[in-house]
Fold:
Amino acid sequence: MKLHEYQSKELLARFGVPVPQGDVTSDPSEAKKIAEKLGGNVVVKAQVLMGGRGKAGGVKLFTNSDDAAAFAKDLIGKRLVSNQNPTGMIVEKILVAETVDIAKEFYVAILLDRNIQKSIVMLSAEGGMEIEEVAEHNPDAIIKLAIDPAYGLCDYELRKAVTDAKIPKEARNQMISMIKNLVKAYEAADAEMVEINPCALTPDGKLIAADAKVSIDDNSLFRHKDYQATSSDSAEDPIEAEANRRGIAYVKLGGQIGIIGNGAGLVMQSLDEITAAGGTPANFLDVGGGAQAERVKSCVELILMDPEVKGLFINIFGGITRVDEVAKGVLAAFEQLDTTIPVVARIEGTAVEEGRKILAGSRIIPASTVQEGAKMIVDLAKAS
Ligand code: GDP
Ligand code: MN
Structure:
């Protein structure tokens, strides 16, 4: 789960990372008050969960509160579009913060490196631009330092890293303590990533986080109830947000064949078989063990919220899950939903005979293997 910039900065500040003064609001007149309180030299920033807000026109500097307020009024409710997010996102909240005087910009992040199975520090003196761009054009400018899970970071490693990254001498000690604090925040929040870009060096030699991004491991949200409350608001896709509210494991993939399976492995296999049959998966959806009719219905509804979906493939192996319950749920869903899309179901396992009886004569087409089912639904979707 991604946190907004203002939430990220709050978290980092609690762990001693310097961040600019500021406040978040969704009200333009409130924005003016915040700007006045900060003395008028402010930056107004759209709080949307996408990169490249600067280029998209969602970040602007002002020298007086009237202009800041006028921009805030314009920005709230606007759809911001960037090259990373062509559909864009509506701005609901804005951050009004004191402008940081920037002499130099750096990049610093703590993130999980799955290849080496450790968290790493990523550091570069090439801040301000997207790190992917730096990685492409000047990969040597990015320094990576693995964090030993037992011993943590040693001072000598950090000193070497800031030197190798060509952080200017006067900022090195500050950068080292910032990295240590970032690691503390990263661990306390069960984060997958904390990133500061740009990490600004002011003309009077102070290091401060001008921007911050934090992403928390979804599996740890039960330990972070305060963020959990906002998790459905901050999902990037409206269907994923609805899935969050319903407690369903759903990821939108952008293709045309909706998929329901039980168990992540079976769902992954379904994605592969749909792709192998020449189709494109619309989603990942794990209905979970012991799926009752009501839940299956909720899952079908969710998938059909995606207008791109041209066919539905159901792949259930009943262990804990009773296949007849699934069949009932699917039928109930389609009785109530206004759709004509083709549906293919491969069901196997506990109570399969009862399940097949329930589906017999319905619009749901049975398949005996996953491969056969995938091919059938891809062909049907193409024909429809
Ligand atoms: P992003 O584009 O979504 O990463 O948003 P950022 O918060 O990084 O803002 C984009 C750019 O605006 C930054 O790279 C800076 O160059 C500039 N910027 C943002 N905040 C400030 C600030 O307080 N002072 C100055 N001088 N520039 C800022
Ligand atoms: Mn940034």
Notes: The chain has a mean pLDDT of 92. The longest strand covers residues 191-201.
